[in-house]
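Supplementary Methods. Inverse-folding protocol.

Structures were first reduced to a discrete structure-token string of length 133. This string, shown here, constituted the complete conditioning input.
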């Protein structure tokens, strides 16, 4: 009887739990990243190279330019949000980057406005693309 009561209590509690807001719906190979355009994602890999322009900085993830898989776009207006030179902070480091994938000239990019979208102190080996609802 106690077992039945415990099972019923657990079932009732599980139905009353709030649904998760972030749900991983897939792991894809980086080469299929265009399928995730318009979706919020978390990507884990190294910054292979990057470049600062007059009004923005690009960090190339998944390969060196022009063979990068995705670029991280940071507008000059958002530089004040970062502690120091963006290239120095992230170049040749493993990072995770979160944001919505957009396409620019048939290449995937994520626009980053806040350093909380980038995490550079990872000890992570696989290249991962998680799509989040």
């Amino acid at each position: 009887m106690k077992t039945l009561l415990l099972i019923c209590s657990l079932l009732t509690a599980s139905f009353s739990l709030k649904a998760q807001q972030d749900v991983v719906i897939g792991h894809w190979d980086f080469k299929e990243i265009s399928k995730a355009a318009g979706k919020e994602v978390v990507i884990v890999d190294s910054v292979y190279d990057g470049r600062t322009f007059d009004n923005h900085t690009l960090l190339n993830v998944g390969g060196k330019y022009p063979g990068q898989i995705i670029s991280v776009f940071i507008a000059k207006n958002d530089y004040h949000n970062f502690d120091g030179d963006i290239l120095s902070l992230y170049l040749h480091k493993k990072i995770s980057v979160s944001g919505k994938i957009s396409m620019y000239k048939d290449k995937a990019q994520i626009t980053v406005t806040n350093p909380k979208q980038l995490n550079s102190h990872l000890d992570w080996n696989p290249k991962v693309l998680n799509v989040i609802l």
